[in-house]
Task: structure prediction
Amino acid sequence: MPGVRRRALSLFAALVVALVVAGGLVRPVAAQGLVRDAGVEHALRQIAAPLLTAAGLPASRIQILLINDPTMNAFVVDSNHIFMHTGMLMRLSTAAEVQAVLAHEAAHIANGHIARRMTNMRSAALGSRLGLLLALAAGAAGAPGNAIMGIAAGTSGSAQRIFLSHTRGEESSADRSGVRYMAQAQVDPGAMLDVLDLFRGQEALAPGRQDPYLLSHPLTRDRLRGLRGFVAAQQGRQFSDNETVDYWFSRAKAVVGAFMQNPAVTLRNLRRDDTSDAALISRAVAYHRQSRTTQALDAIDTVIARRPNDPYLMDLRGQILLESRQYAGAVNAYAKAASLGPNEPLILAGYGRALLARDTPESNRQALGVLERAQAGDANDPGMLRDLAVAYAKAGNNGMASVATAERYAVLGRLRDAGVHARRAMGMVPRGSPGWLRAQDVLNMVEAAE
Ligand SMILES: [Zn+2]
Result:
């Protein structure tokens, strides 16, 4: 079954050109380049956990975040986040290949390759905010440069090369450690060579035509030779297949692929007799995007019947209903999802959004509580912060609405707007109150960047 799925998915990857940029009617909760989806992030946590453990890094601290970008890249800018492009995920054909990429990034963190860069920043406080990381991520993704990147790198212009790119020595050390983590986690380190094979021939291209991964992780002949040596040293060892990791890899790719690609292409590439969970999820999303809600619900409900306690399936059901304007049903689905995964901030964010869409005095009141819980769990979700501001405004609390708006701009890296709203908020909420302190926190960050 996994084999069938993989073949189908690599066909998808070839058709990623037909990319529909998220952010229109349907989106996997995407904002400013980041793809925030509870199920996808859970899948990435499952895939990453064995490598992070092998690297001696606390898996609970490190968040794997997807950037909506069709090119291949993965990088780190601080010790708490690993960024990967959707294009990378879609091009990789096995969970082990994703693990190879993550093992290499984890090695950059564990080996202290980040600390040197962070000291280049004018203020360490800047680095603690996702806003700056996102601005850097946007730079790495090839978006137009902006002031924040200039500050971070100490120069405007080729910020991503200066800030994100590693030295040959660091690459070699990350390769060596990454291979060791993989072996320790029972993952075949040969997958690391398979990943680098994807870039074969690109070294000869002009930098502008290479995948950004080659800029952040220079691939030299020496590096390849060294890596082959590290992998060969592991030969003869037995590596086990991890079905759980493979399963979640197929789910992550199903959701991301179906949201990114033309739904007709998604449906065409699925084999009629493929009734795996991943195939049904792909169909559900593709039908949903074609506004064929009944078929979408049939598909997702078939998977839910197999896995009734899976909060991420119920979360997807809620999203389908919400975006189909079936608000009462959406509220019920999200309520169920939230009870199955009580500590999933992204699920709570969806639940809050559905309650706001329901728009009754009772549901609006409930939404505020749910969204405050979502924020307590993950303050870096711009969609949630937008909804939270709406919920405060509906409750007549314009001061807190401004606080949430300031925080949303901070997360998005729009520091000027963040400053405007933070100042406004501080004039509206009681001095010294929790909201006032949060606004001050945003203002401090903005001023450190000025
Ligand atoms: Zn590297």
About this structure: The chain has 25 helices and five strands. Strands lie at 30-31, 34-35, 63-67, 74-75, 81-85.
